[in-house]
Every structure is written in structure tokens, then in C-alpha cells.
Write a structure and sequence with these properties.
Length: 317
């Protein structure tokens, strides 16, 4: 293997990871305005409630070749935390104003739909960006002679898998787009849990696939977590077609009570979600051993689930 060519590809890979797709992914697919850094978790009503000195704590991933990536906890300013360049300022404001100006009303089907829709748009942007980056890196490998151009290779198939994932996520997003345009708020099924007398410690906006659940097509579910008054609200959302597979998967969490329910929720968030923030006051109160266990579990489950792993330190509430 040509070491110079390898270094060139590695440098190009990391360069690509500094490039972001800035297409506005609004539901009409007609907007030509450049996307902004839109918040997937509202800054004024949620992040500011968790923040200290304008910062929250996030798990940051440092890319490495070869994997695994390095994970660390870092303070992030609320102006940058949980942002993604998937919507222009006009569409971000027009679509999500109902759940940005004030905390979502969990009895309002439009608000519940918008919580899920935002998670879907953010996830689509992430997988699209990954597909663009890995395909560009594959082309660079071909250019410098590290990958063949005329026969399949491992990296080429890896890049192709990301393209297919982006295509599937796009088709899923279009279901939400059409429902939004027709105001079919009841298109989704929701499981709403409320943790009463719970100090704010975490907020989440994420979509993930249930890859281990047997189904004709991979089921997907969104998760939103946010503090309200002296409680924390948990909202799981799924399309009607995915609900028969999602509901049994979530049944253990829904049926659990008190501390054990918080534990199961924490484990699910760490294993399946990549877009969450932790309140600094809660994070600082964690023993270092707990921080280490949480970081290691997150790292170990990037590529595969660990349903049978148990550790009482995996607690985010």
C-alpha cells in the first residue's frame, strides 16, 4: 500500500468531515436559500433551562482511522449545541415556531408531530452528510489508486451502504413532509411519559432505527426529552405502519416505574441516540467512574447494541 496515498486519503477524509451540506430540506423541496445552524433542541426554552453560564455538556466524538472513535464530555455553548444545517431561517421559524416560542403541549397533536418531525429532519441531514462525505472519500481513494474503479471493494461498498441509508431515510422523511403539508397530525402514534418531581438533567431530540426488530422494513422511532415545570417529559413517536413493531419494543420502558424506568430510558438514550445534552450541574455531580462507564457504553454501542449489558451507573436522570 502506498503510504503517501493513504495519508492523502486520510487527510481528505477529515477535510470532508468539516464540510456540511447546506441544502434547506423543507417539505416542498423548492427552497433555494442556504440552510442555517438550526437548533434541533430549542435554545430559549430548553437549552437555556439546562445551561450554566450559557453552556451544556455534550458527548463529542473524535474521529480516528481506524475506528473506534474517541468519546469525551465537553461543554458546548447553547448557540451551537444540537444545531444542524438542514433548514433555512425562514422555514425553521415557520415550521417549528409552535414548539419554539413556548414548551410543547403534549396534549396538542400538532406539537407532538413537530417534535418528531424535527428529529427526522435532523437525522436525514446527518445521514445525507455522511453519504456525501464517504462517497467523496471513495472517489479520492480511486483517484490515488487505493481503491479500484471497476470492481467492488470494501470501502466502495461501505460508501454505497451510506448512500442507501440516506435514500431510505429520505423516503421516510417524505412521509413526514406529506403529513406536514396536509396537516395530518394524527399520522403518528405517540407514547408520552412524565417523570414527576424530576430536576432537569437531560434533553434529547433523536431518531433511531430498530435494527434488531424483525419487520418487513426497518422500523424507526423518534425520541424527545425536555424539562417542563418540575417534571421531565418523554415522547416516543412512530408512524402508524411502524407502531406494531415499535410498541412491543418500548413496552418494557413504558411499563417500568420510578428508578428502573429512568435506568431503562438512560440505557436506550446512550445506546441509540446521538443528539442529547446534559445539564452541567448534573454532570459535575457524577462520580468519574460513572462518567467513564457512560462514555465507554456509548462507544461500545456505536456499531452494535448491547441489550444484555447492565450497570447501575448508566443513569442520566
Amino acid at each position: 500500500m502506498d503510504n503517501k496515498a493513504t495519508r492523502e486519503v486520510v487527510n481528505y477524509f477529515f477535510k470532508m468531515h468539516g464540510i456540511s451540506s447546506k441544502t434547506c430540506c423543507e417539505p416542498h423541496e423548492k427552497c433555494q436559500r442556504e440552510a442555517i445552524r438550526a437548533h434541533s433542541i430549542p435554545s430559549s426554552t430548553v437549552l437555556s433551562h439546562l445551561a450554566r453560564d450559557g453552556h451544556v455538556v455534550m458527548l463529542q466524538m473524535r474521529l480516528k482511522l481506524p475506528p473506534p472513535a474517541e468519546i469525551s464530555f465537553q461543554p458546548v455553548g447553547i448557540n451551537k449545541a444540537t444545531t444542524f444545517t438542514g433548514l433555512c431561517d425562514q422555514h425553521d421559524n415557520a415550521i417549528f415556531r409552535p414548539i419554539d416560542d413556548s414548551l410543547p403541549n403534549t396534549h396538542d397533536p400538532e406539537h407532538l408531530f413537530l417534535l418528531a418531525y424535527r428529529a427526522v429532519l435532523r437525522e436525514y441531514h446527518v445521514v445525507l452528510q455522511n453519504a456525501i462525505r464517504f462517497q467523496a472519500t471513495y472517489k479520492k481513494r480511486v483517484e490515488v489508486g487505493l481503491s479500484p474503479s471497476d470492481v467492488p471493494c470494501n470501502f466502495g461498498m461501505f460508501a454505497l451502504s451510506h448512500i442507501m441509508n440516506a435514500l431510505e431515510c429520505y423516503e421516510y422523511k417524505r412521509q413526514y413532509d406529506n403529513a406536514y403539508l396536509q396537516q395530518r397530525w394524527h399520522e403518528l402514534h405517540h407514547e408520552v411519559l412524565v417523570l414527576h418531581d424530576q430536576p432537569p438533567s437531560i434533553a434529547v431530540s433523536s431518531m433511531f432505527s430498530l435494527d434488531d426488530v424483525p419487520a418487513p422494513e426497518t422500523p424507526r422511532v423518534t425520541l424527545s426529552v425536555f424539562p417542563i415545570n418540575n417534571a421531565v417529559v418523554i415522547v416516543f413517536s412512530a408512524t402508524q405502519s411502524d407502531t406494531p413493531f415499535v410498541s412491543p419494543y418500548l413496552s418494557r420502558i413504558v411499563a417500568a416505574e420510578s428508578h428502573y424506568q429512568k435506568y431503562l430510558l438512560s440505557k436506550l438514550i446512550l445506546q441509540s441516540c446521538d443528539n442529547f445534552v446534559i445539564a452541567p450541574h448534573y454532570f459535575d455531580a457524577m462520580p468519574q467512574t460513572q462518567k467513564d462507564v457512560i462514555g465507554q457504553f456509548y462507544t461500545d454501542t456505536i456499531l452494535k447494541n448491547a441489550e444484555d449489558y447492565e450497570d447501575e451507573k448508566l443513569l442520566l436522570f
